[in-house]
Amino acid sequence: MTPPTHHLMDRLRREIDHLPTQLQAATKYIIDHPGDFGIDSIRVSAEKIGVSTNVIVRLAQHLGFDGFEAFRRPFRRDLVTDSEDRLSRDWLTQLNAGDAIASAQANYARNEMNVVSRSLRQLDPGKVRSAVTLMSDAPQCLVTATRASYALAYYFHYAGRMAHPGMQLIPRHMGSAIDDLLSAGETDCLFAITVHPYSADTIRAIRFARERGMRVVLLADSDVIAPGVEADVTLTISTRSQHQFSSFSGAMAVLEVLLSHLFAIKGDAAYHRVQDYQKAREDAGAYWQPKRLPRVAKKK
């Protein structure tokens, strides 16, 4: 059975002073950057540490693992939190029993969990299949939203365009979404996001797209947002919050499901496209990179 990550970290802290110099460097890196270690390949981790890949394998074997993948697995598992739903909710009860701030936080956290759960429960697989098919088959998939919802549209487009190169965020150049819909046709798709109070600009864009014969996918907090607004597929979300604005945690969860489907459908082409994007960004210096860790002097 794979030991929990915190047990591994405790062991690494206990044993670092007794390891050979290069294993000390690898150990210190893992202690300082467990998230990166869970994500990166063995080659990338070795480059960041400044050692050979064999050093990481030796450390894995020292700790009782068969190899790198088995060693990395608990760190990766912590990142994806694939066992979160099986964990006890005692932490909420304990939080609620605290002071006023802790009790309020428990209430807010419970609300967001309910919003996400309700939004995902309402996500009918048949509608998802139709929505993803419309988007992936369209030469152009135009994504639109305004004001607070724009952040959702921006993220969905930012990630989604790597699966579907024809995905575009509108409006561009501070204009109207209708300006960008003028060049769209019946084979194209509009993906619109709006929640109460509904955006007049988004409603106009949906109506205009329908007039041009485009297919429309709508993400909203209601099946009916305004008269004369018809979508081919409407995905409803919960937006209940404990403050004056809508909660977007449920919307974000639904968008993540849609993105996962898009990447799955596009397969290897999407995977290689992401790799190309990442390499181009790295070559352009878009990401901050820490300096190589100094060698850890071996104690005499």
From TrEMBL:
SUPFAM superfamilies referenced in this protein's UniProt entry, alphabetically: Homeodomain-like, SIS domain
CDD domains, per database record: SIS_RpiR (cd05013)
GO molecular function, one term: carbohydrate derivative binding
GO term, biological process aspect, one: carbohydrate derivative metabolic process
Domain HTH rpiR-type: 6-82
InterPro entries: Homeodomain-like_sf, HTH_RpiR, RpiR-like, RpiR-like_SIS, SIS_dom, SIS_dom_sf, WH-like_DNA-bd_sf
Keywords: DNA-binding, Transcription, Transcription regulation
Keyword Ribosomal protein tagged: no
UniProt superkingdom: Bacteria
Pfam families in the record: HTH_6 (PF01418), SIS (PF01380)
Domain SIS: 131-268
The keyword Transcription regulation is assigned to this record: yes
Name under which the protein is recorded: Putative DNA-binding transcriptional regulator
